[in-house]
Amino acid sequence: MAAPRAAALGPEPGSSTQTSHRLLAYSDALLSIIATVMILPVAHTKIHPDQKLGESVQQLLLAKIAVYLMTFLIVTVAWAAHVRLFQVIEHIDDVLALLNLACMMIITFLPYTFSLMASFPGIPFGIFLFSVCAVVIGLIQAVIVAYGFYHPHLLNQQIQESENQNFYKRHILKIILRGPVLCFLAAIFSFFFIPLSYVLLGLVIVFPHLTRVITWCKNKVLGRRGEEEEHHSLETFTFYLSEPLSKERVEAFSDGVYAIVATLLILDICEDNVPDPREVEEKFHGSLLEALSEYGPNYLAYFGSFVTIGLLWFVHHSLFLYVTKATRLMGLLNILSLAFIGGLPLAYQLTSEFAEKSHNEIEAIQVSCVITFFASIFQFAIWTTALLNEEETLHPFARYGGKEHAFMFAKLALYPCVSLGAFFLTCLLSEFSTAIFHLMQIVIPFAFLALRIFVRISLTAIKSVMSLSRRKVVLLEEEEACLSPNETLS
Amino acid sequence: MAAPRAAALGPEPGSSTQTSHRLLAYSDALLSIIATVMILPVAHTKIHPDQKLGESVQQLLLAKIAVYLMTFLIVTVAWAAHVRLFQVIEHIDDVLALLNLACMMIITFLPYTFSLMASFPGIPFGIFLFSVCAVVIGLIQAVIVAYGFYHPHLLNQQIQESENQNFYKRHILKIILRGPVLCFLAAIFSFFFIPLSYVLLGLVIVFPHLTRVITWCKNKVLGRRGEEEEHHSLETFTFYLSEPLSKERVEAFSDGVYAIVATLLILDICEDNVPDPREVEEKFHGSLLEALSEYGPNYLAYFGSFVTIGLLWFVHHSLFLYVTKATRLMGLLNILSLAFIGGLPLAYQLTSEFAEKSHNEIEAIQVSCVITFFASIFQFAIWTTALLNEEETLHPFARYGGKEHAFMFAKLALYPCVSLGAFFLTCLLSEFSTAIFHLMQIVIPFAFLALRIFVRISLTAIKSVMSLSRRKVVLLEEEEACLSPNETLS
Predict the structure, then answer these.
(1) Chain B CB within 8 Å of residue A101 CB
(2) Touching check for B112 and chain A: CB below 8 Å?
């Protein structure tokens, strides 16, 4: 997908048509920022040092974390619909670019409506506003589809040549409008019976995956035959529409999330951790260094989260070098991984806020370990899912038995193992929890640097052990072979 | 540049080499966020409504705006060096990826050192810390260069095949290390004589352009001959090194800046403009709508800045569709344009903070107009610069006399004209300044939609006028021609 799109850069002669490459990159950047924005209110929640973290997490943060997760998932649903839409419409012109910008503007407003919902769960206005925004987004995207099919030279090559354009049009409209229709119902019900509205909103997030699971289950129950028949009858039409997510856009969206999450903490540090000149004069007798040493833990938290996120990006980057196609399930796992990564700065900030060796600090460190574990285990799951269908989704090198297979395995397994290990170590040796945590952070980058050497050594070790045992077997067989003729002779 | 890079996606067989495409995209995203981060402290400066904006701007904001501009320019200098570096090293492996991440981590810390400098201009620690960071960045990049030249298969094809690799190595090291060397001197002088350190830092920003201007002036004074000779003797080596900035990366960096700036205000709105449930109960008798209507101007500011930035992105996007190469001067103009765009959210926020028709409000609106004007006039300047060298830098359509020339001109001229017009109108009709400003914001998107039609109408009008006048000329000539034979006869 990448090569022809990049090769076609520059306007085509004789028309105002443009490639959509840069429009999509800009949309991805906007969407990834918006998806992760709502972690900021969570991170800015001040926890009193005397409070116990366990309680405060439950009472104070839960609503905000729920808002963050809901926003993240809803924005990724909007992103997925956007990807589908611009797989059908491959070229743009000025009108489409402006319509897309209008669509983006309303999407960026969604997090605010979520904040309203979370603050006033009993008042219908928040959910009503959200639903109205979603309906408007759906309408704009429907206009984009109508415009695209009215000017067929903007469409994907295959659809342009197809005789059944109406089928494609209906299909893409169905994908785009199912969310807004649910939201429209939610808007109506918000005035009568609010809980139903929330259920409908939840349905918007789950819907694409739900239909998928239902058809899968149905096929399992009814046997494979039904699916094959259906598949066959629609083959000519669905070839394109069931194509997996564009790998290029999955990468662009992930890069945006990693970049904004990695720099979130520096925003806070630049604003809050510059000491007041007057205070320095009075409290620290003019010594800036002394004043800054108070913020030491904050710097540590920043560098810790940057290193962790940077290395997780590095693993993601290594993995997607060998991925040739991203299936839907891989996309879902990627989004789950990203959702946990968005929580990392928060976790690191927590670790810097408490007195050393307090009960809160150990809990904060354990929360960090758990978040890191989930973020990395979902990355590992992407690879496992890809391996299940390796012929289609993976480069030969990374497949089972491939040249880089063992190395990729080691790369992806490093973070889950280390974070899990650190978690259990802090449980056992709670006195040294901080030391363990910081040691882990310092060791991991070097572990990545030395990983290739380590993998090679262990592979040769395994091979030599294997060959030794095999040689033994061979020797035994030879002995038997030597013996057997004698035996048969005797 | 884009096509081969994209086409070579996926690892090359038989080595751990990877294309640098995604690493660069991620670096661009990080750098663009960091470049614009420091506008946040400016935007969060609370101005008391009773204060006069003129005074408060001068006293309170000046230092922060200076920090923002310095950070922006220094980060773009680092970005330019990064672009140069990865034009030489075209392929990466794991070690280079990790080294690059380490480099990014230290770059993201630079804004904080600037904040320290601005808060404590008399204490050497801030400038010392900054210089140390810059030196470390330089050292890491030098290690990257050394590693790249030690593994020549990572280098650019042309350098790989060249027999004069050492020349390239020295040249790229010179580009990368001149900043850090100046910073090293600044670090030493910071303990003796601080003003000199600041001068040295200023030099880091100006240096690349200064050398350029000096050689240009020298050539002008000494005549062209000197330059040609020099050019000739170095031609075989400098062909590659004087290549303009990679257009792809200019676009990626610009997209990042536009995206983060467009969403900056929603960050604030999501955090600060969600009313407190208790307050709603007490002050507004439970009416959420009434409570929200208090924040009306903030929403207006958000949508206003999003629309303006979105449309400026749209103009930038249209322009770069027709740009085939970005020269250094175009890169500089682009960065200046981006620096003003970073100030837009601040300007729009100011307009929402003051009582209607107060003296402050008119000033805030005028500041917005001025910032918009400069952001858009620099975009216009990019095009003008490109036209000066149109054979190399522009697609034939956008060149003088090309098919899209008039339309591009109209697109680029719309914002400068409108913002300048709005500025003078607010000066003349100060009573209606708000109305004028909002009208401008509402009209412009539709103006862009209708621009193509408008340009066509005016072009045909001009043509018909031209042809009319030409016909008159022709008629006169014919008359003369008719007369002259007679005259000659008579």
Answers:
(1) yes
(2) yes
d(CA A181, CA A131): 9
Cβ–Cβ gap B108/A452 under 8 Å: no
- Where are chain A's structural domains? 18-241, 248-464
What tokens appear for B164 in the block? Answer: 């004069």
> Quick one: tokens of A422?
């650190």
Residues in chain B: 490
Q: Under 8 Å CB-to-CB from A394, ≥6 apart: which residues? A: A322, A323, A324, A386, A387
Lookup: tokens for A424: 């259990």
Percent of chain B's residues with pLDDT above 70:
83
Rounded CA-CA distance A322/A397 in Å is: 7
B16 neighbourhood in chain A, CB within 8 Å: 404, 452
- How much is the pLDDT for B398? 73
CA–CA separation, B226 and B223 (whole Å): 7
- DSSP structural state of residue B152: G
In sequence order, what are the beta bridge partners of A92?
A18
Q: Which residues of B touch A7 (CB under 8 A)?
A: 2-3, 6-7
**Has residue A238 got a pLDDT over 50?**
no
List, in sequence order, every residue forming a beta bridge with B18; answer none if it has no partner: B92
Best A39, A191, A270 residue to mutate vs chain B (most B CBs within 10 Å): A270
d(CA B401, CA B393): 15
Assess contact for A403 and A397: CB atoms under 8 A: yes
State how far the Cα of A201 lies from the Cα of B308, in Å rounded to an integer. Answer: 32
How far apart CA B106 and CA B127 sit, in angstroms, is 15
The pair of structure tokens assigned to A299 is: 């710097």
Nearest to A305 by CA among A343, A271, A345: A345
The pair of three-digit structure tokens given for residue B454, joined into one six-digit string: 């408008």
Question: Considering only alpha carbons, which residue of chain B is nearest residue A305?
Answer: B105
Checking if the pLDDT of B388 tops 60, the result is yes
| DSSP β-bridge partners for residue A326 | A245
How far apart, in whole angstroms, are the C-alpha atoms of residue B97 and residue B446?
Answer: 45
- The SS3 call for residue A447 is helix
Tokens representing A141 are 């995207």
Contacts of A126 (CB under 8 A, 6+ apart): A113, A114, A116, A117, A118, A119, A120, B288
Structure tokens belonging to residue A206: 């789950």
Q: Report the run of H or E that residue B92 belongs to, with start and end.
A: strand B91-92
Task: In whole angstroms, give the CA distance from residue B265 to residue A105.
Answer: 12
- Is the ipTM here above 0.85? no
Q: How many CB atoms lie within 10 A of CB B218?
A: 11
Asked whether the beta carbons of residue B33 and residue A274 sit closer than 8 angstroms, the reply is no
Distance, CA of B368 to CA of B376 (rounded, Å)? 12
Helical (H) or strand (E) element with B51: none
**What's the pLDDT tens digit per position in B61-92?**
777 787 788 888 888 888 888 888 888 888 88
Q: How far apart are CA B198 and CA B13, in angstroms?
A: 50
Q: Judge whether residue A415 has pLDDT over 50.
A: yes
Interchain proximity A40–B307, CB inside 8 Å: no
Report helix, strand or coil for B416: helix
Query: Which residue of A2, A112, A310 is in closest CB contact with B9?
Result: A2
- The pairs formed by B288-292 with CB atoms below 8 angstroms and a separation of 24 or more are B288/A116, B288/A120, B288/A123, B288/A125, B288/A126, B289/A125, B292/A116, B292/A125
For A67, A271, A361, A365, B351, the CA distances from A350, given in Å and listed in that order, are 19, 18, 8, 8, 37
Name the amino acid, one letter, at A291. Answer: A
Q: What does the pLDDT look like over A274-290, one tens digit per residue? A: 777 777 777 777 677 77
Q: How far apart are CA A275 and CA A291, in angstroms?
A: 7
**B137: number of CA atoms within 13 Å, CB side?**
30
DSSP state at residue A59: I
d(CA A270, CA A287): 19
